[in-house]
Amino acid sequence: MLQACRLIIVRRREDGQHEIGTMSDHYEQWERACKEIRSENAALLEQFSTWLSSSGLSTKTVDRHVANVDFFVNEYLLYDDAVRPKDGWHMIDSFLGYWFIRKAMWASPASIRSNAASLKKFYRFLHENGIVDKVTLEAVRETTKTGLPEWLATLARYDDPDIDDPAEVWGL
Asked: What pTM does this model have?
């Protein structure tokens, strides 16, 4: 006789209390949170597009920056957990240094540079609109400045057919 198996999950809430539920409950909560965040992100991306356009950038450049940020906020930040852009700034290094290289078939030195530039502009936009503070903006700038050489080196190792050891690719 087959019996159903239910995975029980215990999570600690922000208030410190524990919450018990099933994997199905957790997935449904995650889906609801992602739907809410995607809706918020749509409005943010529209405002970001307007902000970029007002600075005199071409439509093509604006569209590229918006597409880059859309991939970060609606794919990466919602991949494992439901993270809002204001809370996901610290994930830029793992995004461009690992996830983007593995998941984006179009990953190239130019696309990594482009994404880094787009994310700096996006967090400047968030700062100017009071969504993130100056410390966060400076941390994003520093992350992209110091991370870029390593991200490009990692991409080169990842694309090198002579390297087949993952530890060598990822610098482990």
From this structure: 0.84
